[in-house]
Specification:
Elements (H helix, E strand, L loop, with lengths): L2 H22 L4 H15 L1 H6 L8 H24 L2 H23 L6 H18 L7 H22 L5 H24 L1 H6 L3 H21 L4 H8 L1 H14 L5 H19 L1
Length: about 270
């Protein structure tokens, strides 16, 4: 992997982990999520407009992906309000590629290589370690639910992106999610809760969410997709490592080892 592609992919992983830490770090995760969604759509609208290329054939994919993204963010909010990021994030990010692989094998009848099977086993072992061998962490179940949503919109976007440039497609997917999230949160929490989240951490999370995706696109111009996908999963370890100093979570050696195993397993899946 070229050094510049490696640097871009590692930066994308750090940004992805970082914006999730910023989201989880708010005392009002629901309000911050709505504000982050709105800010990301507004901040990146000029970039999406400058790279605009989309056909009507993308419309059903945009609609389906928007619905699934809405479910994803609802699950993410529910998980981060009650569970620890160092459990939820590794399970969600590691579980999604496994579910995509299994879905492709069962629905499309595609074969699974030995390397991919080993990757699945490694992810499963990592999830067990993250969950805890002696005491169960409920965050693992929440993480798996989020993984299902990620896997679903990934399968939709894989076909949808054939009919549109990446950034305009993402803008169209997230815009309706933000337009629904803002009034719903305003009704539930009040507009004061939304105004309270108009702060630098929310701006940072918004920039990080879109920025991570943009960096991955840049890396894909310089290196193969499997290599980029493999390196990108270092975000799992980064998030677990950040959870202790930033969020004051008790990240044990067992949990950190589990996050590393999940990342390694997903890397195997990507390279198989």
């Amino acid at each position: 992997m070229p050094p510049d592609a490696l640097a871009l992919t590692l930066a994308a992983a750090a940004l992805h982990a970082g914006w999730n830490v910023l989201l989880r770090g708010s005392p009002d995760v629901e309000a911050r999520t709505a504000v982050v969604l709105a800010l990301s759509v507004v901040l990146f609208a000029p970039v999406a407009a400058a790279t605009w290329s989309i056909s009507w054939a993308a419309a059903p994919y945009v609609a389906a992906s928007a619905a699934l993204e809405g479910i994803y963010f609802a699950l993410l909010v529910a998980a981060y309000r009650r569970r620890e990021l160092s459990v939820v994030y590794p399970v969600a990010r590691g579980g999604a590629p496994v579910l995509v692989l299994l879905g492709s094998a069962l629905v499309l009848g595609r074969g699974v290589s030995a390397g991919a099977a080993a990757g699945v086993c490694l992810v499963a072992a990592g999830v067990l370690l993250v969950r805890g061998l002696r005491r169960g962490a409920d965050g693992a179940a929440a993480g798996l639910a989020i993984a299902c949503a990620i896997a679903a919109y990934t399968l939709v976007d894989k076909d949808g992106i054939r009919h549109a440039a990446a950034l305009p497609y993402l803008e169209l997917v997230l815009a309706p999610v933000a337009l629904v999230a803002l009034p719903v949160v305003a009704a539930r929490r009040g507009t004061a809760a939304l105004r309270a989240e108009l702060r630098l951490p929310s701006v940072g999370a918004a920039l990080g969410s879109f920025g991570a995706y943009a960096l991955v696109l840049a890396a894909l111009r310089l290196a193969s997709a499997p290599a980029v996908a493999a390196v990108r999963e270092t975000s799992v370890v980064i998030a677990a490592a950040l959870a202790a100093p930033v969020l004051r979570e008790r990240v044990t050696a067992e949990r950190l080892a589990g996050a590393a195993a999940v990342a390694a397993g997903v890397a195997l899946l990507a390279l198989s």
